[in-house]
Amino acid sequence: MATPRSVLIKHSEHAHLMALLDKADPDGESLLFDELDAATIVADGEELSDVVTMGAEVTFLDVDAGESTVMRLVYPDAADPSRHHVSVLAPVGAALIGLRKGEEIDWPVPGGKLRRLRVTDVRHAGAGAGS
């Protein structure tokens, strides 16, 4: 049984991401828009140590494949697959933002299928990460 989701995002990140979406292709960024639209917005000073936020290093499990992946969630201009820096506009980035450790989400993959992802660890870097 899936763990209930509670997408949480800080006010300043929400505003920055919504502005980013205003400039993006509306058809290609619907996953992130859906996540932001459903999110609970919290004050910037609120502690979200177990939540996937911008700049966080997240470990997640592909429940179906049994494979674990570590990546850092970044803004599009900082994306670098060779360093495992994944854009929040990528489907997996949009899927993971705002999730807490232990929460799960169904992630769309090519071919119209869904994979279940579970956040297993979240680590935060120093101030300014992911920008």
Short description:
Helices cover 21% and strands 31% of the residues. It has three helices and seven strands.
Q: How much is the average pLDDT?
A: 85
- Class per helix and strand makeup: alpha/beta
- Total count of domains: 1
CATH fourth-tier homologous superfamily: Transcription elongation factor, GreA/GreB, C-terminal domain
Question: What is the topology, as strand order, of the major beta sheet?
Answer: 5-4-3-7-6
Helix content: 10-25%
Q: In terms of per-residue confidence, which ranges show pLDDT below 50 for 5 or more consecutive residues?
A: 127-131
Rounded to an integer, what's the Rg over CA atoms?
A: 14 Å
Total number of helices? 3
> What is the highest CATH level, the class?
Alpha Beta
The biggest beta sheet is recorded as:
5 strands, mixed
Strand runs, count: 7
Characterize the structure shown.
With 131 residues, this protein is an alpha/beta fold. The protein has a single domain (8-123), classed as Transcription elongation factor, GreA/GreB, C-terminal domain (Chitinase A, domain 3, Roll). It is built from 3 helices and 7 strands. The protein has a 5-stranded mixed β-sheet. A two-stranded parallel ribbon has the order 1-2. Mean pLDDT is 85; it is low at 127-131.
Secondary structure blueprint with pairings:
Blueprint: E1 8-10, H1 11-23, H2 30-38, E2 40-42, E3 57-62, E4 67-74, E5 85-87, H3 91-96, E6 104-109, E7 113-123
Parallel strand pairs: 1-2, 4-5
Antiparallel strand pairs: 3-4, 3-7, 6-7
